[in-house]
């Protein structure tokens, strides 16, 4: 059986689990049974970031990322909430600032200015604490504006370490982030037949720059597509990546977990 899997982006803190009365402990235990050894529990606003940290302090396998999602940018007091994230970033077991980024999918570029301000302030928090950033970048269908804006901001703010969470694009764009010190995190979407660009990325990009994630409770991989996702399903993603790369699944798991520990600066064996 495989072991040592690192789910680099999950939301044990998500209210959906509470609504379904699925216990955190239960999720962790069932994931451990299929070989998941580490979890990065990611916040998306102040409340969920606090919860991410509380859960990380409770369970030894769980680490936390704290941050405010770009879709919150037009709803919150950016300066005030960033200060809260700055405070949370001092917590033990916080390993990244995320998920932060740019999302032009839901409202186009209507809130671009607010999103950029929120992103830049949180990048400052990450740099101050020497944390990587976990970036959520999402474009309108067929466009690349959010990715291009992200690259410009990374260069201008001299960001040296981060993760492109839930990557679904082709290898050329991935390479641009890798050149800047980023890792590319592969979601369960990779198991979808339609994800041709992502398949090409996984085939062409060295395993030394890839991570695995669930983004649970969202985006369950095949054959669980459409169900509530949990970290245990990351095993399907690992298998699929192993097939695409024509590598042994345990080698995929070990390499991606090593990458995760490197980017999160976790010194465990
Ligand atoms: Zn997420």
Describe this structure in words.
The structure is a single chain. With 269 residues, the protein is an alpha/beta fold. It has a single domain (5-264), classed as TIM Barrel, CATH 3.20.20.140. It has 10 helices and 8 strands. It has helices at 15-19, 24-33, 46-58, 78-88, 112-129, 145-156, 171-178, 196-204, 234-245, 249-264; strands spanning 5-10, 36-42, 62-66, 94-103, 133-138, 162-164, 182-186, 210-212. It has an 8-stranded parallel sheet with strand order 1-2-3-4-5-6-7-8. Helix 3 (46-58) packs parallel to helix 4 and helix 4 (78-88) runs parallel beside helix 5. The longest helix is centred in the middle third of the chain and has 18 residues, at 112-129. The protein is globular. The model has no long low-confidence stretch (mean pLDDT 97).
Mind sketching the topology for me?
Blueprint: E1 5-10, H1 15-19, H2 24-33, E2 36-42, H3 46-58, E3 62-66, H4 78-88, E4 94-103, H5 112-129, E5 133-138, H6 145-156, E6 162-164, H7 171-178, E7 182-186, H8 196-204, E8 210-212, H9 234-245, H10 249-264
Parallel strand pairs: 1-2, 2-3, 3-4, 4-5, 5-6, 6-7, 7-8
Helix pairs in contact: 3-4, 4-5, 9-10
Zinc ion (ZN) binds next to loops.
Series of H and E elements: EHHEHEHEHEHEHEHEHH
Q: Would you report the number of β strands?
A: 8
Q: CATH fold name, please?
A: TIM Barrel
- Count of helical stretches: 10
Q: Ends: how far apart?
A: 18 Å
Salient structural properties:
8 strands; binds zinc ion; single chain; 269 residues; 8-stranded parallel beta sheet; alpha/beta; TIM Barrel
């Amino acid at each position: 059986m495989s072991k040592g899997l690192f789910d680099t982006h999950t939301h044990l803190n998500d209210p959906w689990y509470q609504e379904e009365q699925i216990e955190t402990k239960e999720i962790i235990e069932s994931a451990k049974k299929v070989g998941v050894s580490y979890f990065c529990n990611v916040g998306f606003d102040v409340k969920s970031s606090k919860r991410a940290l509380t859960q990380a302090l409770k369970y030894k396998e769980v680490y936390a990322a704290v941050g405010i999602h770009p879709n919150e940018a037009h709803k919150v007091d950016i300066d005030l909430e960033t200060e809260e994230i700055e405070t949370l970033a001092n917590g033990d077991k916080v390993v990244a600032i995320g998920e932060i980024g740019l999302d032009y999918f839901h409202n186009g570029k209507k809130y671009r200015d607010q999103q950029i301000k929120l992103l830049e302030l949180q990048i400052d928090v990450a740099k101050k604490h020497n944390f990587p950033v976990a970036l959520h970048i999402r474009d309108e269908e067929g466009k690349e504006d959010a990715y291009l804006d992200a690259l410009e901001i990374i260069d201008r703010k001299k960001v040296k370490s981060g993760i492109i969470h839930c990557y679904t694009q082709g290898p050329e764009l991935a390479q641009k982030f890798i050149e800047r010190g980023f890792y590319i995190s592969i979601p369960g979407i990779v198991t979808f037949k339609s994800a041709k660009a992502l398949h090409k990325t996984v085939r062409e990009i060295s395993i030394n720059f890839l991570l695995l994630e669930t983004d649970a409770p969202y985006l369950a991989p095949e054959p669980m597509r459409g169900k509530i996702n949990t970290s245990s399903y990351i095993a399907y993603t690992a298998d699929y990546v192993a097939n695409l790369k024509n590598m042994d699944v345990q080698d995929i798991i070990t390499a991606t977990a090593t990458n995760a520990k490197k980017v999160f600066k976790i010194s465990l064996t």
